[in-house]
Write a structure and sequence with these properties.
This is OmpP1/FadL family transporter. By secondary structure, the chain is mainly beta. Helices cover 5% and strands 57% of the residues.
């Protein structure tokens, strides 16, 4: 087993994800932020998890911290068939409706320290993920039966106060991606033989990027954060397994860019109450589609999705109930990058989502805090009229929703 494969196997033993933000991004990087629907994430300096959203926030964290957190994501994505068909010859596609959503777990780990005038940190995160698994006989089987995308991001960061008002932070990112895609192939269309057979693609890759941010304190009670996280380009390589057509077995590759993001956040204290807001832009047009090529450069599959850039808006509040307990709540609007029903693939059946979140922070002792949070995501009914070969048309709609349960422990030392 190669070093890449071994490292990936160890890391992924800790992480199984199901997408819950727009596209296949995972915003679940902090339990304290989860209780706010991530309002003010680049300006809120409650704990060291701010380093993911804005590394400049490290300058506001006293001493040293270790944070261990996790998020259980329980989605539903029920497909309702409404006339899926095979164009040539013209007939109805047979198969059941299905709910491909799977329960996932997303872990977070942070460490914050200090050396001289610099605050330093290390974050280990799962920034993208998608696991959808349909039955082999469902009506959309010629487009997808399983999609399992896993990522691990290792993010060291450093920050320093430039003066009493401004701080700057910078981080590097080392990112590993592992992808599994399966679908059924209509042998009657491809080889003239009756029946279906399975096609499986596996690939992995390492990629590299950076992130930076500014934190402005115009007054003691106000934080304004501006941050940017670069895109990460992956040249994934792997194998295709297609028993029905032996020449297709062999090596494959795919070049794909996971999107850049930029956030503007604000937080203002009103005594016991803190008001927070955030706007985050994701450059999903970096992604567009996932094209798989064989060793000769010929395209085997093209998961055409034509993603567009999207925005996420959130507002929330923190109320300090007493010396040991704080309450959190927030709402958000998360726009989908999918432009219309003809680009909604069953591998990423995304739609606009509205978040409602609540959370609580409790001081267990002088140096240990516990954060708990719950979010419910209401998703718009999303229509589908999708084909990549002008032969197999998936027609219908998705009814979706998501529940998220989050927890983290903070050790200050």
């Amino acid at each position: 087993m190669s070093f890449n494969k071994l490292t990936g196997a160890i890391l992924f033993a800790l992480a199984s994800q199901t997408v819950s933000a727009s596209g296949f991004a995972l915003i679940e990087q902090s339990a304290s932020g989860q209780g706010l629907s991530y309002a003010g994430a680049a300006a809120s300096t409650e704990d060291a998890s701010v380093m993911w959203f804005n590394p400049a926030g490290l300058t506001e964290i006293e001493g040293h911290q270790i944070i261990v957190g996790g998020h259980v994501i329980s989605p539903s994505a029920k497909f309702n068939n409404d006339g899926s068909y095979l164009a040539v010859p013209v007939n109805t596609l047979q198969g059941d409706e299905d709910n491909g959503a799977t329960i996932g777990f997303v872990p977070n780990l942070y460490w914050k320290g200090k050396t001289g005038d610099y605050d330093i940190g290390l974050g280990v995160n799962v920034p993208f993920g998608q696991h959808i698994s349909y039955e082999d006989d469902w009506v959309g089987r010629y487009h997808a039966t399983e999609t399992n995308l896993k990522t691990i991001n290792i993010n060291p960061a450093i920050a320093r106060k430039l003066n009493d008002e401004f701080s700057f932070g910078f981080g590097l990112n080392v990112q590993y991606v592992d992808l599994l895609m399966e679908q059924q192939v209509n042998l009657a269309s491809s080889t003239g033989t009756a029946g279906d057979d399975s096609l499986k693609i596996e690939a992995d890759s390492w990629g590299y990027g950076y992130n930076f941010g500014f934190l402005w304190k115009p007054q003691a009670t106000t934080n304004v954060g501006l941050s940017y996280r670069s895109s990460v380009t992956h040249n994934a390589k792997g194998n295709i397994d297609y028993p029905a057509v032996i020449p297709l077995d062999g090596k494959i590759s795919s070049d794909v860019s996971l999107p850049a993001t930029a956030s503007l956040s604000a937080a203002h204290d009103y005594g016991k109450f803190t008001l927070l807001a955030d706007a985050t832009w994701t450059k999903w047009s970096d992604y567009g589609s996932l094209t798989i090529q064989n060793a000769s450069g010929s395209t085997i599959t093209d998961t055409r999705q034509d993603f567009k850039d999207s925005w996420r808006y959130s507002v929330g509040g923190i109320y300090q109930l007493n010396d040991t307990t704080k309450l959190r709540a927030g709402v958000a609007l998360d726009q989908t990058p999918i432009s219309n029903e003809t680009n909604r693939s069953p591998r990423t059946p995304d739609s606009d989502r509205r978040w409602v979140s609540v959370g609580v922070g409790y001081k267990l002792s002088s140096n240990i805090d516990l954060d708990l949070a719950y979010s419910h995501l209401f998703a718009d009914n999303s229509k589908v009229n999708y084909t990549v070969d002008d032969a197999h048309y998936l027609v219908g709609s998705y009814d979706a929703s998501v529940d998220i349960f989050s927890a983290q422990m903070i050790w200050k030392y």
